[in-house]
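= Tokenised fold =
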Amino acid sequence: IYTSTLISIFRTVGGVLYTSIITGLASYAISKRAMPGNRAIALFLIIPMYVSGGLLPYYVTISQLHLFNNLLVYILPHGFWAFNMLLMRTYFDTIPPELDEAAIVDGTTRLGAMVRVVLPVSTPGLAATAVYCFLLAWNEFLYAIVMVPTRTSRTLPLAIFNFLGENRSDYALGAASLVASTLPVLVLYLFLSERFIEGMTAGAVRG
């Protein structure tokens, strides 16, 4: 349980940072309506959210990349999520384009305008994306059992599942493990609930 907790922390912290950076950059680019091919690129990125190749092609790809049974498989293949991109793009759309354009006129780069001007006023959207990424990463189960067969390299949900299967008579310890695995999610939502709701509803009501 202790080792699996550390692996889940590695998966969660690394995954949230990695995904937030890649998704944030993609969302900012897609939010610029003047970018050539904007709609085509957005459609190309969104299609896999509805139609995927399935687990078998994913397994073959992971094997060819030599990530099978490697802790990096918990992070590297999960850098981009179309749903997070749509969420962030919707929030970026609510920010007046004059803000980053003014920063560019003052001499900063497009990336500098995003980091210094856009992101500071996008905390609700970032919080919503971070919470969603956190939930997916902390509850990692399917890919852990398929891509990482080594018992000592499994995530906390899978370790608890195996533990409960082997110790069915110890209900108190099993319940304690489940509560402990749930606490980080409750604490995170407690502190970011308002930001999460604001980010999720951004753009839903227009004046």
